[in-house]
Design goal:
399 residues; mainly alpha; Growth Hormone, Chain: A; 2 domains; 19 helices; globular; MFS; membrane
Length: 399
């Protein structure tokens, strides 16, 4: 039995999913994952503390929050192809400028520009692009996109490390800029054009499911608030780990080599969990996937707290398994609950609180790690508890 049965996809949907997925894998690697590898070298070169690099990165994350709703509305109106192509140019420009910064002010300005590109070009934009093309049948595409995205850190961290040690951090930025222009811009240019917006969502939706009336959506404010709260807590956990996971594992007693090796398991674990979710739970409401996945975060924290360095591998695997499914849920749960009409704009609004907490996560969790060492795990436990409570308060409505 194939993993993704052909009959579950519209014509051309598999190829489009692969293009969007590859675009996400390389775009995440060329921007979001850069500070974890380059912050030290950049700080030393510019004569500033690495914490200032993460402060500039937080500015980019705040810009993502402001950009998301606007980008989503544009995709709802015109489709994702032109917007994703524009973000490739913005990414390339931002990375080229980053390679030339000499002052702290220039650093913050360039990360502001990169935040604009990330807000309009990462997961939410890819999800909205797929939904605009395939309606509610986009659930399989969202899973496929995240399968590629799950390998972003696994690919980019070693590659960026090699570029850093072989040539330097400025040259590493230029290489990633070239990837945006020479690989991703032509890739996104080959995406299909979105159908005319004049078609009703029921007509454009291969599943034939009519969109929820606007009045019904206005009456679902509580579900929207609970979803936004869940996503905010989950993104805080995920961003904290993407910024500080090797350091957290070393605080537990693991050597630097063991910490990096364990952290490298996160990507494959995320991909494995997404495949398992699709195989075993694709007919279930995404809310059940979310409720199951959120349990992985406290399990990971308890394993590291109780086992110390020997629990580093368990922590990385458990975190990867839970985070992998939750990344899919962020795309599929709003689609299942509210329909495809207006998905991009709604998704952008839902992610504003998540982007805000994401912007604060590198600094706040880094501070907790400095002050409390392994006690910082309580911060993650609190965030997981908030997400779990919100998910259990939601009801699996489907339109």
């Amino acid at each position: 039995m194939p993993l993704f049965p052909a009959h579950s996809f519209a014509p051309g949907q598999v190829l489009t999913t692969c293009k969007l997925g590859l675009g996400q894998m390389l775009s995440w690697g060329s921007a979001f994952y850069l500070p974890a590898i380059l912050a030290g070298a950049m700080g030393e070169s510019l004569g500033i503390a690495p914490s200032r690099i993460f402060a500039a990165f937080s500015v980019a994350l705040l810009m993502m929050a402001l950009t998301g709703p606007v980008a989503g509305r544009l995709i709802d109106r015109w489709g994702g192809r032109p917007l994703l192509m524009a973000t490739n140019v913005l990414f390339a420009l931002g990375l080229a400028l980053l390679s030339q910064v000499q002052t702290q002010g220039q650093l913050f300005a360039v990360w502001w520009l990169l935040g604009l590109a990330m807000g309009a070009g990462l997961y939410e934009a890819a999800f909205a692009t797929s939904v605009r093309l395939y309606g509610k049948a986009a659930r399989g595409s969202i899973v496929g996109i995240t399968l590629f995205g799950g390998f972003a850190s696994t690919l980019s961290w070693p590659l960026t490390t090699w570029l850093l040690h072989s040539w330097g951090w400025r040259e590493a930025c230029l290489v990633w800029a070239a990837v945006q222009l020479l690989v991703l811009l032509p890739l996104h240019a080959s995406l299909p054009h979105a159908p005319a917006r004049a078609r009703t969502d029921a007509a454009a939706d291969p599943a034939g499911v009519p969109a929820a009336p606007a009045a019904a959506l206005r009456g679902q404010w509580l579900s929207l608030v609970l979803l936004a709260l869940t996503f905010a807590a989950i993104w805080f956990i995920g961003t904290s780990m993407m910024s500080h996971l090797p350091r957290l594992l070393m605080v537990s007693g693991a050597t630097a080599t063991a910490a990096v090796a364990a952290a490298a398991l996160v990507g494959p674990a995320q991909v494995a969990s997404r495949i398992a979710d699709y195989v075993f739970l694709r007919r279930a409401h995404p809310l059940w996937s979310a409720r199951i996945a959120v349990i992985a975060y406290p399990v990971a924290a308890l394993a590291l707290a109780l086992l110390g360095a020997s629990g580093a591998w368990v922590y990385a695997l458990a975190f990867g398994l839970g985070n992998g499914i939750m990344t899919v849920v962020i795309g599929t749960l709003p689609l299942a609950m509210f329909g495809a009409q207006g998905y991009g704009h709604r998704q952008g609004l839902l992610m504003v609180p998540a982007r805000m907490t994401q912007a604060s996560a590198p600094f706040l969790f880094g501070l907790a790690l400095e002050q409390w060492q392994l006690g910082a795990l309580w911060v993650l436990m609190l965030a997981a508890s908030i997400a779990g409570t919100a998910l259990w308060c939601l009801r699996p409505k489907q339109v």
